[in-house]
Amino acid sequence: MARETEFDSVLVWFRRDLRVDDHAALHQAVQRAKRVHCAFVFDRDILDALPDRRDRRVEFIHASVAELDAALRRAGGALRVRHATARDAIPALAAETGAQAVLANHDYEPAARDRDAAIRLALERDGRRLLTFKDQAIFERDELLTGQGRPFSVYTPYRNAWLKRLSPAELAPHEVRLDGSLADGRDVPAMPTLAALGFEPTGLRELGIVAGSTGARAAFDDFARRIGRYRDTRDYPAIRGPSYLSVHLRFGTISIRELARFAWQVRHADADSAEGAATWLSELIWRDFYFQILHHHPRVVDEAFRPEYERVRWVDDDALFSNWCEGRTGYPLVDAAMAQIERTGYMHNRLRMLVASFLVKDLGIDWRRGERYFARKLIDYDLAANNGGWQWAASSGCDAQPYFRIFNPVTQSTKFDPQGRFIRRYLPRLAGLPDRAIHAPWTAPPQTLAEAGVVLGVDYPSPIVDHDAARKATLERYAVVRRPPAGAATT
Description:
This protein is an alpha/beta fold.
């Protein structure tokens, strides 16, 4: 018996969901249409603004799209790939394929929401529809609210509500059976090469980064064997503790439902791994939390979540900022972390907190400059999480660390890289220093430095700021947050 369908033809627009399995929009398409066309747009509105033609994210996306296209071709379809503005390409593709509707998954970023609104209007003028679905979050938008019906602004109550609300339905996969519903892909041309897009290879595989669902599956399988140790190892950058799945979550080469379901099952079924799984699940909940913050408060892209922090007067010093970017601060763990992001496009999460705290609270530089630097460098850059993390470090965000909590870069180094293994990996010029000296070389005796072949100011910089003095200056700078603005009424 032929199945009843709502549409003769639809177009599935892949965006940050570059996989076939457990895909909300594709699931809806094969359920509701006789013929399903698929498309991806290398959006010139985004790509043309990138400053570097050797962008790791573009290479990762290109490889993931190629794998997605191959999977669809094996099922009889193909991916229609365009290098254009999405605002022009999607209405044109819908008309070209005769699609009555375009199906896609939600995107929570303000620019993406503006783009989708414009495309929806263009489609409606043509008598077509844009239908979007939840796919990259477990709970989104208004699905979790406080008892007063407001968005959460503190993580712990949000996490408690998230866990209380969770049921098997939220974790169930969106099954996709490509059983003849894909439109014939034999005449669909091959996708453009990376060079045709105007970009150059960056050597992802040499860095151990494998794109697409293949890379996601390998990373997940590896982490699944380590999840029980996650709580104990995640803060030590020299240890293989993190999941390394952030880039795959960012571009949707693996489903958030699959990952959350796995963590939930391990948490309840494996006593030996339960603590690690629960800790990792909490990290996935942070991701949902920041999505809903960005959805309800899009102003955080450019403004402090807590408006009173706009009164802080930042240090405007390009030389200090350049020293931070280039890993020349004189604090080895900070500099090693900045070397990691430069060489690999990745930075360990503990180090993201450390270098953010150093920029904002040791150097006094506006958190927005650091956030935008990460936006250029991180292969797993996600606006919601990156913004949330930087505002957390700056104390200006929701549920942020208090303004008076300031990371000591030497203490962090001795605690989380005690043998200096991470420092030696990324700062080999310090490799000869003993463990006791590698965290703060300026305190080492001259003979120790000489034996290691290190001349401060030549082989490695002296500290560009004194941490104790910087801490005092930060407390003074943040004092405006505790005082009412000039002219404000007092009681």
